[in-house]
Write a structure and sequence with these properties.
By secondary structure, the chain is α+β, with helices and mostly antiparallel strands. The protein has helices at 13-24, 37-41, 71-78, 93-103, 167-178, 220-228, 243-253, 262-273, 282-290, 336-354; strands spanning 2-9, 27-28, 48-55, 58-65, 82-90, 107-111, 117-121, 127-132, 155-161, 181-189, 194-202, 207-214, 232-239, 294-298, 301-310, 321-325, 367-372, 386-388.
């Protein structure tokens, strides 16, 4: 799954461009990086305004309607602003398309006259532009995509939310389409939220593609589906830069981030006492607390340290958000605790938005069930189904 670019559909492209520049530090794309954008996107300049932004090697497109009849306007009449297209580079477009039409029953919605790219309908609000790129082994290898650079290195994972009962269908669709491998499958169930999730993995580009479905009516996933009016990309996790310094800079830019209570770090201290080798030095620990960053590691391998932080929803609706994580040793299975905390933090944040008085959050019997573990899962040794006890974290919020 070699991601070429991510395309947002929004109400105001200029305002959203400025938001990304001011709050995320993204930059306007250089002209040579977006040659042929209008042709590939299939969005006439007369009725659509598109801005192109870069973040390192990543390319992000932001489009807004200029007329009520534009494709973007029709999209926004049906769905909330968010990720409309995740474009992927492929080296055998015809073969992939032929096999996918048989196995995944994909629907082609647009294509180039020279067959250099096609756009297919994904699930719900998401489409995928498949871009023919010569194999790296080919002597004629020239990057024909929008970004002209390898982009996938800056994305750790994407998260797709689907309606209840659609998880297995979505998993099979993306396994066949992008040749993804199944990893962990797990459940989270609390009195405030519930979900089923399947992690898929691309060994070629080391990108994770997580698919969630709600397991309760008050699930965070269900809220997303109701706001978005269907399945869609809930968040994109970026990696690469030293996270502590990056978070400090983003806070200085005014990026709204989920707040982490002090009790979270008080609970972690007991976990640190059980470590033979600390994953961070005392100075780093103080910085992590000061910047309110979530942390996870494998006690036997402190070099597996994972730092992660989540933004609040970036649009008016509580739908799409971003996360940032450290570009360290990414062991499979690591990060489930940060994911768990993000679910509760997001729900707490949404509750505070809905009510001027933030209601007390009572202790509940939280359940986090690992239904399957992939081979060589580092944080959960063995292949038998495992139950992760959250007794020590249930009282954090």
């Amino acid at each position: 799954m070699d991601i070429d670019h991510v395309h947002f559909f929004v109400d105001d492209a200029v305002a959203q461009r400025d938001w990304f520049i001011n709050h995320m530090g993204w930059q306007p794309a250089e002209p040579e990086r977006v040659l042929g954008v209008e042709t590939m996107l299939g969005l006439p300049i007369a009725d659509t305004h598109t801005e192109c932004l870069t973040h390192g090697d990543l390319l992000f497109l932001v489009s807004a309607p200029l007329t009520s009849t534009s494709a973007v306007a029709k999209y926004l009449q049906r769905y909330a602003p968010g990720v409309a297209d995740v474009a992927v580079r492929v080296t055998n477009l015809r073969d992939i398309l032929r096999q996918s039409q048989v196995k995944a029953q994909v629907k082609v919605t647009a294509q180039a006259t020279d067959q250099s790219w096609v756009r297919i309908q994904g699930l719900g609000a998401v489409s995928h532009t498949l871009i023919e790129t010569p194999s790296p082994e080919s002597p004629q290898h020239q990057h024909q995509s929008l970004s002209h650079k390898r982009q996938s290195s800056g994305i750790d994972h994407l998260v797709l939310n689907v309606p209840a009962g659609m998880l297995q269908t979505a998993v099979e669709f993306y396994q066949h389409l992008f040749d993804l491998q199944p990893q962990q499958r797990f459940e989270i169930q609390t009195s405030q939220s519930g979900l089923h999730s399947q992690v898929l993995y691309s060994p070629q580009t080391q990108i994770y593609f997580n698919i969630n479905e709600p397991a309760s009516s008050n699930s965070q996933i269900q809220t997303f589906l109701e706001v978005t009016h269907g399945a869609g990309i809930q968040h994109i996790a970026l990696k690469g830069a030293p996270l502590i310094k990056t978070v400090q800079q983003l806070r200085g830019r005014g990026l709204p981030l989920l707040s982490i209570p002090k009790s979270y770090y008080q609970q972690l201290r007991s976990r640190l006492l059980d470590c033979k080798m600390l994953p961070v030095c005392p100075q780093e620990w103080q910085q992590i607390q000061a910047q309110q960053i979530l942390i996870d590691w494998q006690p036997e391998k402190p070099e597996s340290l994972l730092l992660q932080i989540f933004s609040k929803p970036i649009f008016q609706q509580p739908s799409f958000f971003l996360s940032l994580l450290s570009d360290g040793s990414r062991l499979r299975g690591l990060g489930l605790e940060t994911f768990w905390h993000s679910i509760r933090l997001w729900k707490r944040n949404w509750n505070s938005v809905q009510s001027t008085a933030n209601p007390p959050i009572h202790h509940d019997r939280s359940r986090f069930l690992i239904l399957e573990t992939a081979p060589r899962t580092a944080i959960f040794p063995g292949n038998a189904p495992l139950r992760l006890s959250l007794a020590r974290t249930a009282a954090i919020f």
